[in-house]
Design a protein that fits this description.
The complex is a heterodimer of chains A (about 140) and B (about 200). Chain A is of the alpha+beta class and about 140 residues long. Helix content of chain A is about 35%, strand content about 35%. By secondary structure, chain B is an alpha+beta fold. Chain B has one domain. Chain B is built from 2 helices and 10 strands, in the order ααββββββββββ. A 6-stranded antiparallel beta sheet of chain B has the order 2-1-4-5-6-7. In chain B, strand 6 and strand 7 form a beta hairpin. Chain B is elongated and about 95 Å long. Chain B starts with a helix and ends with a strand. The chains are: A alpha+beta (about 140), B alpha+beta (about 200). The interface between A and B is large, with 41 and 47 residues.
Chain lengths: ~140, ~200
Amino acid sequence: MTLAEVVVAMAIASLTVLSLVGGYTFSTVSAEKAGLALAANTRALERLEDTHAAIWNVSSWPVVDQLVATNFPAKPVILDLSGQGAGVTYGTNYTTITQVSLTPQLRRVRVDCVWQFRAGRVPLLLTNTVETLRGPD
Amino acid sequence: MKPSIGCRFHDRPGHSGELAFTLTELMVSVSIFILLVGGVVSTHLFGLRMFQIQETKLNASAGARRIVGVLMDEIHSCDTFQIGTFTNGIFTGLPLGAPQVGPALIVYPTTNASSFVMYFVNPADQKFRRGTSVPGTTRVVAQSVTNATDLFRAQDYQGNLLTNMQNNTVLHLKLEFYQAVRFGVPPDYYKLETSATRR
C-alpha cells in the first residue's frame, strides 16, 4: 500500500465520518427548530383564542365590539427557555383584523407569530401564521 | 491495491525471511487502524449523545402535542369547565372570588355533571394525567412537568386573570418541561403555552 493510497483512504474515511457527524448535528438542530415551531404555533393559536373571547355583539344597543385591532396590539411572547440559563427564544404576535363582509358580518382574524431561529451564524426569521373567520356573537 | 509483501517475494524469491511486515510497517498499519477505530467510536459516541439530546426535545414536543390537540378540542366543545386542585383523588374547584389559577382542570362536555374529563399534575412524580368519570381511564399524557401550581389559568380576552368564570373565559394552559442532567447531556427546558376558548 503506497502512501498516496493511504492518504486517499484516510480522506474518504474522514469524509464519511464528517458526513455522519453533520447528519447527527442537522437532525438535532431540526428537532430544536420543530419544537420552537410548535411553541410558536401554540402562541399564535393563543392569540387567536383571545380574539374568540372578545365580545362582538351587534344585536344589542349600543353595539359591543371588542374585536378591533387596537385591542390586540403586537405582543412579545417567550417561546422557550434554555435549560442552561441563557438563550431565551422570543417571538412576537402580530394580530390583523379585517372586515370581510358587512352582510353577513364577517371578519378575518390573522395572527403571525414571528420568531428568530439561530442555526449556526445566520439568524433566520420565521413566521407561524394562523387565520380564521369570525361572525358576531 | 497491490500488497507490497508479494512484490518483495517476487523480486527476491530467495529471501524467505522478508515474508512479513517490518516493524515499521506494522506500527504504521496499527496506527492507521487505531485512528480509524477512534474516529468510528467517537462518531458513534457523538451520535448517542445527539440522540439523547433529541430524545428529550422530541419527548417534550410529543407530550405537548398530545395535550394541546385533545385539550383544545375538549374546551371548544364543552359545556363548562372549572379550575381547581386535585388531592387524593378528589377535585376541588376554586371558590368564586379567588384568582382562577391552579394545577387541575375539570371539563364537563355536557350538562350532565357526572360525566367529565379531568387534567391534573401530580407534584410527586411530575406526571401530567388525563382522567375521565369512567374509573380506570386515567393515563399519563406527559412527563417531567415542573410547574405544578399555575398550569391552568382563566383570563379575559386581554390576558387579565379572572376571579370568576364567565361565558367568554379564555382557558390558558402553561406547561413547563424540565429534563435534568443525565448521561452527560446538559439540562433542557421546554415551555409551551396556549389558550382555548369555549365556543
